[in-house]
Design brief:
The complex is a heterodimer of chains A (208) and B (418). Chain A is built from six helices and ten strands; from the N terminus they run H-H-H-E-H-E-E-E-E-E-E-E-E-H-H-E. Chain A has helices at 7-25, 34-37, 46-50, 70-79, 186-189, 192-200, and strands at 62-65, 93-95, 111-113, 117-122, 127-134, 136-139, 154-158, 162-169, 172-180, 203-205. The radius of gyration of chain B is 23 Å and the shape is globular. In chain B, strand 13 (357-365) and strand 14 (369-373) form a beta hairpin. Chain B contains four helices and 16 strands. Chain B has helices spanning 8-42, 270-282, 376-387, 394-397; strands spanning 159-162, 172-175, 207-209, 263-267, 291-293, 298-303, 307-312, 315-320, 334-335, 340-343, 347-348, 351-352, 357-365, 369-373, 390-393, 403-406. The chains are: A alpha+beta (208), B alpha+beta (418).
Chain lengths: 208, 418
């Protein structure tokens, strides 16, 4: 038997071994799989999670502006008791029924109109209500995993400091923050039913 | 030319190597499947057993000259408060110094120890001459609080893939990929979106994004103090989506609906953290070591008990736990990006938490409405830009192949690792 082997044979065997190794390790859990890429919400090990085409810049979303249904807002306002406040806003101003003209006094600093909407703070004994409204939205890029569930028009969530409700009216998006005081557990401060009841009593303020 | 001669055993060597590689990969694959099966059995979001393998040597951040001198840390007694970890004492551990940490015999930093999941109670500081904490050993008790994201007992032998992470080099900082939460801390979301492009980084000093709850000194973290070196070292690790117990706290896209809705950012260095702790003991208003700034032009739309909100277009940036006695802004004030908002502290209403900035971005997502989105990639981008540092993802900074570290099983033994 000839025990001598040419160098090319050794090299070929080494290449074969390397190929086999790579093929085998394709099955490693952190190796990217096409099926995983289609399910971005799954937690993946570091190497796999890191594989992305835009690093470190990330993906930048696009801002979009929604159209406001002013006729509907004016029609609703005509039936409201309303508050006589001379303010102009890019979107209809919604406020708690407990709001007064003083709530919109510039000296109070609790209300302001922005280029895209407004913010207003309504202090209370148990919690403060902060209302933010906007007509500017962010069009999330396709790479951003979006909720699988249908979006509700009334979204209630607890937060670090209380609870928040998001909803839309007249084409604008509103966020009502219930910021609890005295570090009580949020459930003891505000419940979903209480939040819903408070928002159902919101009134329209001013117009544009 | 003399022909190269060899022997048959040498010729077979590559084949043997390939066979070993195949079998080795199978072992790793099996171990991984065991992890996944175990996680499913445990309910998915529950934490994995403690990982005894200490983290790779932390790299000092810019401005950090090396291991910081230890000192007392942790705010004083406090009343219950919601959600975030509070300060207190940590479980003692074998006095093995962590990388970059004080040697035995030196004064030890005092970690925080929240008690219940949603209502952490801080505990008094330990004496400054207490033995220094070290990394948890296989038998080290895991701190836990009733109702919180308490670690479950180690139920089965598992092996966790560990990436060998090299230290950050000058001119760069390291960060784990978005969604890659600390193992056992929850299920992250891989969201590369920069929801707030072009913002300033909210902390003016060196800063580190990592878990307050699952880091050293945290309720579910390894023994140690909040000012321990590893908490002030790269890589960053996202903690948006980190699990929280109890009520619904959803976001745009975290898989779980009871999660951390922002990211926690530690500011400064280990030694600055200790300086803050010393200042806190004297007078809360003296905690002014780490400046916090406005990330974008806008208006201060709300100043709460321990919150400050900055409204800027269709986004709301929320800052928590600043030194509320030393705020640099007032309700309704217009600010420019870079303006000082205040100082990083531990304010938590009538309670206290660890020294950190909890930072949220709430955005109006088209078709969804206002919701919490991940600030992580916006902050990665901002930090690199503000500090003129290259943001290097851990996967890109890891030249070596992944290894598998052994993790103790329920009986205290070691799981086999290839």
């Amino acid at each position: 038997m000839n025990l001598r082997t040419p160098a090319t044979a050794v090299l070929a065997a080494t290449c074969l071994a390397a190929t086999l190794s790579v093929a085998a390790c394709d099955r490693l859990p952190w190796a990217p799989k096409p099926s995983d890429e289609a399910q971005p919400q799954q937690t993946q090990p570091p190497a796999q999670a890191a594989s992305g085409p835009q690093r470190p810049e990330g993906t930048v979303p696009v801002e979009v502006e929604s159209e406001i249904d002013w006729p509907a807002a004016r029609q609703d306002a005509s039936g409201d008791a309303g508050i006589a406040v001379a303010v102009t806003s890019p979107i209809p101003i919604l406020a708690p029924s407990t709001a007064t003209a003083q709530s919109f006094d510039p000296a109070q600093k609790n209300f302001g109109v922005t280029a895209d909407g407004y913010y207003a703070k309504f202090p209370g004994p148990r919690f403060d209500m902060i209302v933010n409204g906007t007509k500017t939205g962010i069009l999330a890029p396709r790479s951003a995993p979006l909720p699988r569930e249908p979006v509700k028009d009334f979204s209630f969530n607890y937060s670090e400091t209380g609870a928040e409700v998001a909803f839309s009216r007249y084409g604008a998006s509103y966020l009502v923050t219930f910021e609890c005081k005295n570090n009580v557990a949020p459930e003891q401060c505000i419940t979903e039913d209480q939040a819903r009841a408070a928002i159902e009593e919101f009134i329209l303020v001013g117009s544009s | 030319m003399t022909p190269i001669k060899t022997r048959r055993p040498l010729t077979l060597a590559p084949i043997i190597i390939a066979a070993l590689a195949l079998s080795g990969c199978d072992v790793v694959q099996r171990e991984w499947e065991r992890i996944q099966n175990w996680r499913k059995e445990q309910g998915g979001d529950k934490p994995l057993p403690p990982q005894p393998t200490p983290a790779p040597a932390p790299a000092p951040g810019p401005g950090e000259t090396g291991p910081a001198a230890p000192g007392p840390a942790g705010p004083g007694p406090a009343a219950p408060g919601p959600a975030e970890p509070g300060p207190g004492d940590a479980q003692p551990a074998p006095p093995t110094p962590a990388p970059g940490e004080p040697a035995p015999g030196q004064p030890a930093p005092q970690p925080d120890q929240p008690q219940s999941g949603q209502l952490p109670v801080s505990q008094p500081d330990a004496p400054p001459d207490a033995p220094p904490p070290g990394p948890a050993g296989p038998g080290a008790p895991a701190p836990a609080g009733p109702g919180g994201p308490a670690p479950t007992p180690a139920p089965a032998p598992v092996a966790i893939p560990v990436e060998p992470v090299r230290p950050a080099r000058p001119g760069e900082f390291l960060y784990y990929a978005p969604g890659d939460l600390k193992p056992g801390s929850g299920t992250g979301v891989i969201d590369e979106t920069v929801y707030a492009p072009g913002i300033r980084f909210p902390v003016a000093t060196t800063a580190f994004i990592n878990s307050q709850v699952f880091g050293a000194g945290g309720m579910s973290g390894p023994p140690g103090g909040q000012c321990d070196g590893p908490n002030f070292s790269y890589p960053w690790r996202e903690n948006f989506c980190e699990q929280r117990a109890g009520r619904t706290r959803a976001t745009l896209n975290c898989p779980s609906k009871a999660v951390h809705q922002g990211v926690d950012i530690r500011g400064g260095t280990s030694s600055i953290c200790r300086a803050m702790a010393r200042a806190l003991k004297v007078d809360r208003t003296q905690v002014t070591q780490v400046e916090v700034i406005a990330v974008e032009d806008g208006v201060i739309s709300n100043v709460g008990t321990y919150t400050v909100e900055l409204r800027a277009g269709g986004r709301i940036y929320r800052y928590l736990h600043l030194n509320m006695a030393k705020l640099a802004v007032t309700q309704g004030q217009a600010v420019k990006a870079g303006d000082r908002v205040g100082y990083l502290s531990s304010d938590f209403g009538d309670a206290a938490t660890t020294f950190h900035l909890h930072f949220e971005i709430k955005a109006n997502i088209a078709g969804v409405g206002w919701t919490w989105v991940s600030p992580y990639m916006s902050l990665v981008q901002a930090y690199g830009r503000d500090r003129t540092l290259a943001a290097v993802r851990v996967a890109d900074a890891t030249p070596a192949a992944p290894v598998v570290a052994a993790v103790p099983d329920a009986s205290g033994g070691q799981a086999a690792a290839p």
